[in-house]
Amino acid sequence: MITLLALLLAAPQGVDSLGSDSLEAPPHVMVVWIDDVGRRDWDDCELPKLHRLEASGLSFSRAYANPYCSPTRFTAQFGVYGFRRGIVRPIRDIEAVAIPEGELTSLGQVFKDEGFATLQAGKWHLSSAPTMGADEFLRAPNLFGYDDALAWSRGNLALDGGVGHFEWMRYDNGVKSKETTYSATAIVDSARAWWRETSGPKFANVCFNTPHVPHEAPPRNLLPPDHPTPVTDREKYESALLALGTELERLLEVVDLTKTFVFVISDNGTPGSVARVDNREKGSIYEGGIHVPMFVLGPGIAPGTDERLVHTVDLQATLIELLGFEHVAPSDGVSFASSLSPEISSTPERDWVYCERGRPNGPRPFKKWFRTIRHKDGYKLTVREVRGEIVEELWLLPNENEPVIDAKKSAELRAIMDAVTD
């Protein structure tokens, strides 16, 4: 088996293509989620292990997500925008938010229907206990196509009777228990064991809670030997990312990267409490809240950078085309599979991406609804709607300090937005 070390050593030459004889069975797929890091912090922080992994694969320099967790994870799981099912902010237990079983096809169900064994490990944050009922909630990911749901959590680890990354409530195929192992370590332990013990084609959705609040210093053994003890929240945040690099490398030790596609993505930008730019990060529709790191490793993936616009809503459509599945891709996603395999003819690239946040969750109209269209030419329209009052601003990236005046461009982007959301 060719593992991470071998791939890193051989990275400049790449590996066999998707259509080669070396792939005797359908390739496996693993999607890895990082919780709360924007592209700016990803690039600016000293993260040798994570950056080395990114450099060994194909990095998407213009990848986008929604500015909050649940809406992003919803787009990736179901391939449609969150507003279509009333998910525009993090799901809370007091909210009656439901994703009806069978109404939309989840990523897990797509793979299960194609004969793959399926795993959800780590943070889920797509279900509401009051809506589903206590018994069904214990098995929430299982209801959406995941054969096994291990070490998963409903959302923020400091909720649900937990304290943080060292004391949290985990769910394992319907069983709830207290976990005192560091969250990233426990998630990797479960995902590694499942991956090694499961035969046949496999799909795993591995969702780290790291480096989400509460900001805590990770175990020393996950940090470089000479790393200083983190004191401030910002230092703890950066050290958690370093620890994540260690755990991600450990996870990939059991993955044969000549037969497995691995997608690594962040769900939104850096939290404002530790961000370097106030009010322009997680929760905002500025670039700091929605522009995220994303890279792909696997068969046929040569090191490099792809500058096409991509969005988390594209993930399901991309995997369906990449693996040649029979499923019909959801309408909101645009496949970028042609960037990942020479066997796939070039498909039209996105001209724009759409991102949003709002409140409350539920059917429209939302009391607050902030939306943006980011065009590939660098123009970006933001529309902030609060109780019927609307503020529109046009920006020319990378400048988000001074709006620009261009009535024609504003009308063009507003027409795109209206076509998406009407």
Name given to the CATH homologous superfamily of the largest domain: Alkaline Phosphatase, subunit A
Total number of β-strand segments? 16
- What is the fold-level CATH name, i.e. the topology of the largest domain? Alkaline Phosphatase, subunit A
Which descriptor suits the 3D outline? globular
Summing up helix and strand content along with how strands pair, one would put the structural category as alpha/beta
The CATH class of the largest domain, by name, is Alpha Beta
Task: Determine Rg (CA atoms, Å).
Answer: 20 Å
Amount of beta strand: 15-25%
Mean of pLDDT: 91
Helix content bin: 25-40%
User: What is the CATH architecture descriptor of the largest domain?
Assistant: 3-Layer(aba) Sandwich
Description:
Strands 1, 2, 3, 4, 7, 8, 9, 10 and 11 form a 9-stranded mixed beta sheet that branches. A 5-stranded antiparallel beta sheet has the order 12-13-14-15-16, covered by helices on one side. Strands 5-6 form a two-stranded antiparallel ribbon. It is 26% helix and 24% strand. The longest helix is centred in the middle third of the chain and has 20 residues, at 233-252. With 422 residues, the protein is an alpha/beta fold. The relative contact order is 0.19. Residues 7-23 have low confidence and may be disordered. It is globular. Strand 12 and strand 13 form a beta hairpin. It has 2 domains: 4-351, Alkaline Phosphatase, subunit A (3-Layer(aba) Sandwich); 357-421, no CATH class. It has helices spanning 4-10, 39-44, 48-55, 69-78, 107-113, 129-132, 134-137, 183-197, 233-252, 287-290, 315-322, 407-421, and strands at 28-34, 58-64, 117-123, 148-153, 168-172, 175-179, 202-207, 260-266, 291-292, 294-297, 304-311, 352-359, 368-375, 379-386, 389-396, 399-404.
